[in-house]
Amino acid sequence: MAGRTVRNRTSGAGTSRAVRTAAAAACASLVLTACGSTKDSAAPAGGEGGGEGKVGVILPLLTSPFWQSYNDYVPKMAKTEDVDALKTVNSNSDPSQQITDINNQLNQGVKGLVVAPLDSAAISAGLDQAERKGVPVVAVDVAPEKGKVAMVVRANNVAYGEKACEYLGKQVKTGKVVQIMGDLASVNGRERSEAFRTCVKKKFPKLKVLEIPAKWESDTAASKLDTLLNSNPDIKGIYMQAGGVYLAPTLQTLKSKKMLKKAGEEGHITVISNDGIPQEFDAIRKGQIDATVSQPADAYAKYGMYYIKAAMSGKKFKPGPTDHDSTIVKLPSGILEDQLPAPLVTKENVDDSELWGNTVK
Question: Do 251 and 217 touch, CB atoms closer than 8 A?
Fold first, then answer.
């Protein structure tokens, strides 16, 4: 995630956005059983039964470049998917406010909701409200721990942590590496953290992992990294779980300690991030960081709209591959999650025009 309180972000560049859009459009016009892992449902799952009606879109925050980009994509993708989306609502990093926002949207008579949860557990109160009113919900970026949603649109966060581990492990053979973690109250923060930790222990035992619980907060990340570097000036690598939140404070902290060396220079600290925002790409080009995993802000918006339209029409889905280079999986909670591809970006492919971070003006 990105911003003060953000939660969540496997591989492969994937097909072009144009191809994915055309495929999804074609899929929408056919019986869903013919498209990847989707299937028809005889009974509507709330809404109007025909996919009609207003849709509320609730954001977690707008202090992160990632969520700012997602916010910009929402009206464009709503138009593409023929969804009547209301103006987005910003919960401003407050889980309690997010529940209020959901209730307000329901009181306005929305027939569907697309929500990016701030807290995996707390969101259940809002989901229960929606279920009581027969309004389907699609969750974006974060999977709820419980509650009813038609689909979770999200990248594989375990893969995020594993990719960061694999990359750092190949660049840093031995020594100390840091992971600046997200909020462990979020499934995203937990999955990335545990995946990175487990992978390092299994595959790169010569690395020592130091951890900074930063709660998706930039100030917390900066102060704790500063303290850690004072006692561990021999750090060789850093994994930032959200570039939208941690990139600027990490670079500023390294610069203040004269530890910000370009890639290839002696003393360079290898840095990998998550998000795929333009600022990360610029930092890769400058040699300030080495890699990021591009969390698909455009696809989050697109398939959030796609699935809410389908849910309002009474369509249901099942696990399996889709027609847009992803896989729907069934989570332990029973919730279905469409795990969208999120490619690794390095200096070799940072200028790829298919990366959404290169399309933001």
Answer: no
318/330 Cα distance (integer angstroms): 8
Distances (CA, A) of 234 to 77, 165, 176, 202, 251: 46, 19, 7, 23, 16
* pTM, entire model: 0.82
pLDDT surpassing 50 at residue 150 = yes
Strand 112-115, strand 327-330: pairing? unpaired
Task: Please give the Cα distance from 120 to 347 (Å, whole number).
Answer: 34
User: How far apart (Å, rounded) are the C-alpha atoms in residues 256 and 241?
Assistant: 22
CA angle 243, 143, 20 (to 5 degrees): 70
* Residue 14's pLDDT band (cuts 50, 70, 90): very low
- State the Cα angle at 214 between 208 and 220, rounded to 5°: 115
Q: Which two tokens stand for residue 298?
A: 């455009």
What is the C-alpha to C-alpha distance for residues 105 and 102, in angstroms, rounded to an integer?
Answer: 5
CB 216 within 8 A of CB 245: yes
- Count other C-beta atoms under 10 Å from residue 109's C-beta: 11
Task: Tell me the CB-side half-sphere exposure of residue 191, using CA atoms within 13 A.
Answer: 21
d(CA 65, CA 58): 16
CB proximity list for 22: less than 8 A, separation 6 or greater: none
